[in-house]
Write a structure and sequence with these properties.
The chain is built from seven helices and 13 strands. By secondary structure, it is of the alpha+beta class. The strands form two sheets. Strands 3, 4, 5, 6, 7, 8, 9, 10, 11, 12 and 13 form an eleven-stranded antiparallel sheet that branches. Strands 1-2 form a two-stranded parallel sheet. α4 crosses α6 and α5 crosses α6. The relative contact order is 0.20.
Length: about 240
């Protein structure tokens, strides 16, 4: 029996390791050395990104239990999402990532949003069900967040906590061109949650379905199309 499992990589690598731990029912702490392009979960936990700091992390051996998300039969550590922001990761070239880092995501995000609105192909009928309500949205994006940091935006889910047993859910509806700059600016500060076209709620379980073929992205990696039920596994992962 190992004392600790080490994950060296970004959010996608972390997702693979967390799924291995969860499905094999290994009660072993996870130590994360964030080395990806966008390390949302590591950034939220303020984990060191250098070898010296990582050594000190191991030496302290301070373990905390954090929440996991379950999407059908796969877990996610930081975020499940669909819509224009998730498409950014697949349109940014490796060259751009190497040169620009997370700024490449911001630039592609702006291009995707503007282009989609001009073409009129970025809204779809999203049915949302949880214990409190049942509603249909003309959506452009949904985000189911465990931490505040998503896609390099540190305040995208500003009230999220990784130990509260709740998801923070964002649903963006039918922005027009005049609202693009406004919402992108607000993404940086967290004020977007009060925007007229944004629904922001907290829940421990939610089911999403859609007539269109909307692929769900888990921690930056493509998974499966909707429909899908998302559940919180409260304090389901031990992390140094």
């Amino acid at each position: 029996q190992e004392d600790v499992i080490v994950c060296i990589g970004g959010d996608g690598t972390l997702n693979e390791v967390a799924n291995g731990i969860y499905h094999k029912e290994r009660a072993v702490p996870l130590a994360i050395l964030p080395t990806g392009t966008v390390n949302d979960f590591g950034s939220f936990l303020n984990l060191p990104q250098d070898v010296g700091g990582f050594y000190q992390l191991l030496k302290r051996n301070q373990v905390e239990a954090v929440d996991l998300g379950l999407a059908n039969d796969r877990v996610f550590v930081n975020v499940a999402a669909g819509g224009f922001l998730t498409e950014i990761a697949y349109t940014v070239s490796e060259d751009q990532k190497a040169k620009l880092g997370r700024m490449a995501y911001y630039l592609e995000g702006a291009k995707e949003l503007v282009g989609g609105i001009v073409r009129g192909d970025r809204t779809w009928e999203l049915e949302v069900v949880n214990r409190q309500f049942h509603r249909t949205y003309q959506a452009q994006m949904f985000i189911i967040a465990n931490s505040t940091s998503v896609g390099g935006f540190k305040n995208l889910a500003p009230t999220a906590e990784v130990q509260d047993g709740l998801f923070d859910v964002l649903i963006l509806e039918n922005l027009d061109l005049n609202e693009i700059v406004e919402i992108l600016t607000q993404f940086m500060t967290g004020r977007h949650i009060h925007h007229d076209r944004m629904t922001y709620l907290q829940t421990d379980e939610i089911t999403l379905s859609c007539k269109q073929d909307i692929i769900v992205d888990l921690d930056g990696e493509r998974y499966q199309p909707l429909p899908m039920t998302f559940k919180v596994i409260h304090k389901g992962l031990q992390v140094l």
